[in-house]
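Per reviewer request, we include the raw input and output of the structure prediction for the construct analysed in the revised manuscript.
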Amino acid sequence: MPNMHLKDIPSFIRTTDPDDFMFNYIMEVSQECLNSSSIIFNTFDDLDKEVLQVLASKFPNIYAIGPLASLSNNLLEIQYDLLNSSLWKEDTSCIEWLNTMEPKSVVYVNYGSITVMSNHHLKEFAWGLANSKYPFLWVVRPDLVIVGVPSKKCYPTRRLAFSSHIADETLFWKLYPKGNGMEINPDIKRENVEALVKEMMEGDNGQGIRQKALEWKKKAEAAISLGGSIVTNFDRMINEALSHG
């Protein structure tokens, strides 16, 4: 992928050792996927075009039909809870508060499902967010903090996710590729967090990233609509499955 660096690789396979166990395990599992009749990807064509094109050249029966929750909301009469991919019980009580805020006024922070950090870094994030003086919606998993591990052994993600007010959004995309992200030193300092928040919310760079995110949101909505790539790929997948009985 263009503009991809070693530091952007997930930490559990970020290695230069060709004998690394986890790296080789992922490689083995990936190869095994090629023995299946089809592969489904939780993305859409425009977002991961380069990767999907390379994969399609090696394995034609791939279907980019994600995110599945949005697909079900648009096309299928299935309750969202049945297709919820979250590993944690969701707390929706924040939505009422979020609906009281002005559009594009709230900072959204989410570390994903596998990132861990020290208690010290968690506090630095908290103070940085508070010192920015912007309201924020912060997702903190129960297992986010690793107790008893030195800070340098559990650096948090280098990407900090920000968004505008999202209460009325149909689709919310956390886009780090395509220029939609800002880096932060892995040794988190509150002043760095504060500066990045202010740059994202007030600065020219932040405005540019917001505009790109909006453009990707529109592409995602087009992909999930009738005639879009997600719907087309979904129909193609169903027809392929039916043709094989």
